[in-house]
Each structure stands twice: as C-alpha cells, then as structure tokens.
C-alpha cells in the first residue's frame, strides 16, 4: 500500500530472536545464592584450607543430621523451637498490629502510643532478658515473651508508617464517591497499608528466629538453640553447623511464605521488579 509507513516491530520479536529458551523459575534463581555458598564451603573444606575442628565439611554435617534424625533428637528439638516461634509471632504480630491501628487511625492514639513505642524501641530487647527472668521466670512463658516483644516493634513501625503513608488524594477521592469512615478504612487505607505490614512481617520473622537463639540459651532443655549449646560443649562443629543451616533454611521458608502472601494480597499492584 502506497504511503504506508514502516511496519511496527512486534515487541516480542526481540525476545524470540534470542532463542526459545524459557527463563528459569524464580525459586530456582533464588536458590542460586545458597548453592554458591554451599559450593564455596565444599571447596574450602575439601581443599583443607581450614581444619576439621574449625569448620566441619558438608559430608560430616550430613552425617550429623542422619545421626540426630535417627535418634529423634532433631525432630523433637525442631518442633519445640517452631512452637516457641509460632506463639511469639502470634502474640507479637497481634499486639503490634493493634497498636499500629490505634496510632494510625486516631490522632489521640498517635499522641499516646507512637511516642511510647519510639522510646521503647531504642531499648535493646536482649537487655530485657534479666528483667523478663525476674518478672516471668525461666520457663516457656519467658521465651515466648522475649520473642513477642521483639516482634512487636517491626510490625508496629512499618504498619503505622504505611497507614499514615496512604495518599491523601486517594482518601479524598473515596470521600467524593460517598465512602464513609468504615468504607475508607476498608477500601482505601487497609489496601494501602498491606504492603507496609508485609514488610514488617518479613522483618519480624527474622527477629523471631534471632531472639529464639537467645531465648533458648536460658535454662532450655530442648530446641535448636539448646542443641547448639550442647554441641559447643561437646566440641561438635558438625552439629553446630547443622543448627546454623537449619536456621538459614527456616529463614528462607519464612521469606517464601511472605512472598506468597505478597503475590496473593497485592495482585492488584504493579511494581518495579528489577531489570
């Protein structure tokens, strides 16, 4: 046809010209980092760059895992630690979320809660351990309480900031469409605050596992932290490395859970995913 301009190229042609290779799934790419760490670990131990007493080899760690699994110690201690973290997260997330809602939705709540939370969050949670022992004792309640206290602050800070960070233009647009107070909260503020809450949840999961190690240092007769301390007393670096790997795997699993929640709850939001 005369006068026709140059044909527009199909934006997918450039991708097809590279080849028919399919991109690797995201979970495979995310495992590349830990796999690289494992390769470095294997290389260092097999090359004899460090002694066996300093760093156990992957084969020795696998052997320790089989030993503990066959005796039932690994499953028993892991289940105890999971229960402690679950209860600490349950109480910490619930309290932090309630405080964030009170401070975020109400000006009086902000005056009463936010200043107190900003004062308390600068106090190291580990420094509270002696007081927790005095208040509650050295039983299971103290361990759960320590985890819950550490979880509260990331949940509160991120959720409160997300609530107050909702664009005012969206709130005004909701009012112009006839939304009342409850409608604005349900349709505008809550969806806008969910991303911040999920960021706080991700931080809280990491804090929970970190505090679990300290909690299980105090009169603990079970748990991964107890197993780690016992291995130190026995000079079993293979068990110590195994416990650290378990913490790392649990951290990856928790991060994966949060990512699934993000894809489910934030399916409406398009954001930058990197180049």
Automatic annotation (TrEMBL):
Residues 74-258 form the ABC transmembrane type-1 domain. The chain crosses the membrane at residues 85-106, 118-138, 144-163, 184-205, 239-261. Keywords: Cell membrane, Membrane, Transmembrane, Transmembrane helix, Transport. The keyword Methyltransferase does not apply. CDD domains: TM_PBP2. It is a multi-pass membrane protein. Belongs to the binding-protein-dependent transport system permease family. This is ABC transporter permease.
């Amino acid at each position: 046809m005369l006068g026709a301009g140059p044909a527009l190229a199909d934006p997918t042609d450039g991708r097809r010209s590279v080849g028919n290779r399919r991109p690797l799934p995201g979970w495979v790419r995310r495992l590349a980092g830990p796999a690289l760490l494992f390769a470095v670990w294997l290389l260092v131990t097999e090359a004899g760059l460090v002694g066996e007493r300093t760093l156990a080899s992957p084969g020795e760690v696998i052997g320790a895992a089989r030993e503990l699994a066959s005796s039932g110690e690994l499953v028993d201690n892991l289940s105890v630690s999971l229960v402690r973290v679950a209860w600490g997260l349950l109480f910490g997330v619930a309290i932090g979320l309630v405080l964030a809602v009170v401070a975020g939705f109400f000006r009086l709540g902000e005056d009463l809660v936010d200043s107190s939370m900003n004062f308390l969050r600068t106090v190291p949670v580990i420094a509270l351990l002696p007081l927790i022992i005095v208040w509650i004792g050295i039983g299971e309640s103290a361990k759960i309480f320590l985890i819950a206290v550490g979880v509260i602050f990331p949940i509160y800070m991120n959720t409160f900031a997300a609530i107050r960070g909702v664009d005012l233009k969206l709130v005004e647009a909701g009012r112009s469409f006839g939304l009342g107070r409850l409608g604005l909260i349900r349709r505008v503020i809550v969806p806008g605050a969910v991303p911040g809450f999920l960021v706080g949840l991700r931080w809280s999961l990491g804090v929970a596992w970190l505090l679990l190690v300290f909690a299980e240092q105090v009169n603990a007769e079970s748990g991964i932290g107890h197993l780690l301390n016992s291995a130190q007393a026995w000079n079993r670096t293979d068990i110590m490395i195994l416990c650290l790997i378990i913490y790392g795997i649990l951290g990856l699993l928790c991060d994966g859970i949060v990512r699934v929640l993000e894809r489910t709850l934030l399916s409406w939001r398009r954001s930058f995913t990197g180049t």
